[in-house]
Amino acid sequence: MTDTHTLAPPDFAAARRHMIESQLRPSDVSDPVVIAAMAVTRREDFVPAAQQHLAYIDRAVPLSGGRVLNPALSSGLLLTRAELSGNEKVLLIGAGTGYLAALLAGIVARVVAVEDNRALVEHASSALGGMANVSVIESDLTQGHAADAPYDLIIIDGAVQQVPDSLVAQLAEGGRLLAGVDEAGVSRLAMGRRQAGAFALIPFADTDIAPLAAFARPKSYSF
């Protein structure tokens, strides 16, 4: 008689609950609206099938083209700091496979998600297919999507070395922009508000968030 062993499928619902209790709540992600969105959004749908077992680890999950799905903690901190009312029109830059877009779609009125990697656009479009208030746009990350501006909120889901004026110009007066900032290899989350034409990012949390190469400063040359 031959013994056969069948591996039980991963319990993603339990992993999601554990993520909330062990990664998010201890790190000041406690807004009930944000927690509710993260409790029902299937993070495993936003990673390649071969990587699904990594969906709820406390680190970034590799995607295609050198990109990653950022840790859930960075998403939770960004959404918490955004202090969402539910009526916002949001521009998401660096949408990746669509996880943060899905979280936003459960909270705000409209999400315009911009991504420049074709494979990631296709994954996001498929994973977000049933969400009528999300548009996935394939475009240059640094250019945003001016056709639907102005936005109440812009989120850049990655660490940047600079924020182009072309993105700030797409904010409504009083609108907020949240992003990761890359300072000498150290990543932080930061927020700025457009007021009377002025804008500056102010860091508010240290956390892991992957850099977005599209926002790197041009290298200077010396002769």
List keywords for this structure.
single chain; about 220 residues; alpha/beta; Rossmann fold; 6 helices; 9 strands; globular
Any overview of this molecule?
With 223 residues, this protein is α/β, with parallel strands linked by helices. It has a single domain (12-215), classed as Rossmann fold (3-Layer(aba) Sandwich). 24% of the residues lie in helices and 25% in strands. It has six helices and nine strands. The chain has helices at residues 12-24, 32-40, 72-82, 99-105, 118-127, 165-168, and strands at residues 61-62, 68-69, 89-93, 110-115, 134-138, 151-160, 171-183, 186-193, 202-206. A hairpin with a 5-residue loop joins strand 1 (61-62) and strand 2. Helix 1 (12-24) packs antiparallel against helix 2 (32-40). The mean pLDDT is 93.
